Amino acid sequence: MSEKKTKRRDFLFTATYAVGAVGVGATIWPMIDQMNPDASVKALASTEVDVSAVDPGKTITVLWRGKPVFIRRRTQDEIAEARSVKLEDLKHPEKDEDRAANPEWLVMLGVCTHLGCVPLDQKGDYNGWFCPCHGSHYDTSGRIRKGPAPTNMEIPKYEFVDANIIKIG
Amino acid sequence: MKIFYRIILLVFLIIITPIHSNSAEKIEYLKTDWSFKGLFGKFDRSSLQRGYQVYTEVCSSCHSMKYLSYRNLAEKGGPEFSLEQAKAIAASFEVKDGPNADGEMFTRPGRLSDKFVMPYDNVKAAQAANGGAYPPDMSVLVKARGGGVDYIYSLLQGYEDPPTGVTLDDGVYYNKYMYGNKIKMANQLSDGLIEYSDGTNATVEQMSKDVTTFLMWAAEPHLEARHRMGFKAIIYLIILTVLVYFSMKKIWSRIETEV
Amino acid sequence: MSDHEYTPKSKVGKWFNDRLPLLTLANHLTDYPTPKNLNYWWTFGGILTFCLLTQIVTGLVLAMHYIAHADMAFDSVEHIMRDVNYGWLIRYIHANGASMFFLAVYIHIFRSLFYGSYKAPREVIWIIGIIIYLLMMAAAFMGYVLPWGQMSFWGATVITNLFSAIPLVGEGIVTWLWGGYSVDNPTLTRFFTLHYLIPFLILGLVVLHIWALHVPGNNNPVGIDIKKPSKDTVPFHPYIVIKDGFALLMFMIVFAFFVFYTPNILGHADNYIEADPLVTPAHIVPEWYLLPFYAILRSVPDKLLGVVAMLSAILILAVLPWLDTSKIRSAVFRPLYRQFYWILVVDVLILGYVGAMPAEGLYLLIARIATAYYFLHFLVILPVLGLKEKTLPIPLSITEPVLGGSPNLAAAKNKESFKN
What we know:
The structure holds 3 protein chains of 3 kinds. Chain A is α+β, with helices and mostly antiparallel strands. Chain A has 4 helices and 10 strands. In chain A, 29% of the residues lie in helices and 24% in strands. Chain A has a 4-stranded antiparallel β-sheet with strand order 5-6-7-8, with no helix packed on it. In chain A, strands 1-10-9 form a 3-stranded antiparallel β-sheet, with no helix packed on it. In chain A, strands 2-3-4 form a 3-stranded antiparallel β-sheet, with no helix packed on it. The longest helix of chain A is centred in the N-terminal third of the chain and has 31 residues, at 3-33. The model of chain A has no long low-confidence stretch (mean pLDDT 90). Chain B has a domain at 223-259. Chain B has a two-stranded antiparallel ribbon with strand order 1-2. A two-stranded antiparallel ribbon of chain B has the order 3-4. The longest helix of chain C is centred in the middle third of the chain and has 30 residues, at 185-214. Chain C has 16 helices and 2 strands. Chain C is mostly helical. In chain C, strands 1-2 form a two-stranded antiparallel sheet. In chain C, 40% of the residues are buried. Chain C is 63% helix and 1% strand. The B-C interface holds B 3-4, 7, 10-11, 14-15, 18, 39, 67, 72, 136, 139-140, 143-146, 148, 179, 219, 221-222, 225-227, 229-231, 233-234, 237-238, 240-241, 244-245, 247-248, 251-252, 255, 257, 259 and C 36, 75, 78, 81-82, 88-89, 92, 234, 238-239, 242-243, 245-246, 249-250, 252-253, 256-257, 259-261, 263-264, 269-270, 272-273, 282, 342, 345-346, 349-350, 353, 399.
């Protein structure tokens, strides 16, 4: 068999393998993508919460996308404490002003950034939250101060529809 | 091998013949051009939008569509209302929600994620309000009827005075396309019954076609994606088959005898 | 099992292979000597493996979204069709895949009937195949119940009621199958469990089926025994792999056409109506692949005997290797058998056709004649034919022309090669 012939044959086999591999890939993708959130889950985007009954110093917890959201009406002391902290002292530096646009209201995903437990309210060394699972301490702005959690608790997208209604998502 | 083909042909004829004679006994459905048929079939957007209007203004007072959500109206491959239009449509319905913090159920304007509001709370309520006949849910109605779209399209235009000798009970109507000819739904459509927002003349035929198109989409919302993907898949398979065929010839050429 | 000793080239390979001879197995499978004259009817074994794996993979995916509860099953199927990413595609592949699976298995069975692949020394392959076929029917039937539409519900009711034909204990068995006094939620959940289990049983049996095949090796269109490896054989890889692959792709084009362009044509419209225990659909028929047996069931006017006839129609296949007395395997050399073979094919197609028609009048008469012929073929024609038929001379090798050897000579040669 001449060299030329061998080459052409090789090309044919390579092309067949390549086209076959593309097909296998294209077939596998739907089987993987089906496990992603489906259209009905994606559509459940927002929740509206009436916070008129929440007094200063109290927290309510609401469910959003299957996770707890803490809505805390902070006292003046807590706000002052949160705003006085120097950014250098923080493991994950974020200003309280950026976390709570309206200082009285802290709206935060109540999920410890370590491994996903729900921290306890008004516990820990920083008067904020304390996660009982592995001992992470959060301050009154929900920022990580001590313990294994890598980042501050997440602030979801939310807005005040009016003075009493918060729309999360 | 020849005898094999001859026999296959024979069998095919045996099977086909009675099927044909059977269907000849059935009534021929009214025919119309459906844009969604065929290898590249797509829905006619404006027809879908008009069909939705017919559904809301005429059918929805009795027939539910419990598997559809308002968000579907803005999705690709459907009526493709704009997101704002779909939100406005959703908000025009009162949706029952709850319980709230006091444990009470309450109503609020609909959102995109809500399912189509049902005319009755449950099947029993629907039966009670319709003289014992349950107006079927229309989400998959087209797929749940043997004749499919042609049947629904014909049924909507098939109301007639009963032939002599046929007596109808109260609340029963004569329809030449209905199985057994007796139907508990009165004729709903009449020329000019609704005013299409796009100015199309609302004849019975037009409304039947539009609402049937809408029902087809409702039953098969991914039809367009399916047709697109199917075309690509089959082209791909043909290319690969050709490649594999030549690879096979090459490989088998190493053996002296023919394949 | 191995035809020659195999030692992996690499040290790691050898180390591993000494502890678990997977490489020896892989070598056996790739080098497996296959008759080189296999035609395309032999590619359906590979196609069936593809069908089984497709059903298992898509079924696994569907089970992630499906809810086996009488109140939610129908809704969850609609959820799959509408909201789950590519859910419509996966469900349509699974639903049409069942039909394609049966299409392929029928071709596979009739290939075996034509070329006498069920005869000695391949009886065990054949019997395992029949068991696989029975399990396929069970899996298909239970799978059809899961969407919980009208046909699901009434199909389940009718088929489970077959057991009530058993004298004395029948009623008790039916109640036990249902887990209640009618087909209901307990029935659905147990059907789902079994529907999930059976494919893996089939997979295990397929391994045995192939193992049993690799002991004597493939039959071939000429139906004579061949030496392996020899001039008459080719290694499985790449020769048979590429040929199977080509046939599989042709099959997939047909499959894709059903999935993408007529996904509901093989189903029943009534199954898009949610199950209603108060109303039976006007015309209730099983899926097309069960129709011939359904016709046999209905052609017998007695309840118990009907069930017995239907079961016998399948079980009779298990003893086929002993009913067929002919020494010659391939129908190519059996001119009379070949004609009866095609009559049987037509008979089964007729049974399938009348199975879909109402059981009355002319249809019922045709069904009865076809049923009688079906049993006649296996119980009378085959045994007698094997003894009386004058067969054509068969070649001694698939590469050499006919040497004028008489069938008896060849049979003697067959016996010899068994001893070797």
